[in-house]
Write a structure and sequence with these properties.
Helices cover 19% and strands 22% of the residues. By secondary structure, the protein is α+β, with helices and mostly antiparallel strands. It has a five-stranded antiparallel beta sheet, covered by helices on one side. The chain is globular.
């Protein structure tokens, strides 16, 4: 964990959140600025700045996040017809918190390209 990281503080319980899921490696919570009826942020508890900073040792946790996303989606009837998982990487990619995270969105129809 990083002492100055917003998402690390949320995972540690130092900043309150609406927790949706937690296990030894992952923490998931509702986004405070939802872009869909269901908008969950999924983070590893291990601090990784972004997708551009992952290594082979992170393969297990990245795969686990995909499984967790599917598990969470099954909890919400709004996602029965589909959902979207997004990772923003770097400033140009739209990343605003530099702790790797995934947005799980559902409950509405999404267009392509995303914009």
């Amino acid at each position: 964990m990083s002492d100055d990281c917003l998402f690390c503080k949320i995972a540690e319980g130092k900043i309150s959140s609406h927790k949706v899921y937690e296990d030894e490696e992952v923490f998931a919570f509702r986004d405070i600025n939802p872009q869909a009826p269901v908008h969950i942020v999924i983070i590893p508890k291990k601090h990784i700045n972004g997708l551009d900073n992952v290594s082979h040792e992170d393969e297990q946790i990245l795969g686990h996040i995909q499984v967790v996303a599917a598990k969470i989606a099954k909890q919400f009837p709004e996602m029965k017809n589909g959902f979207r998982v997004i990772n923003n990487c770097g400033e140009d990619g739209g990343q605003t918190v530099f702790h790797i995270h995934y947005h799980l969105l559902g409950g509405r129809v999404f267009s392509w390209p995303p914009g």
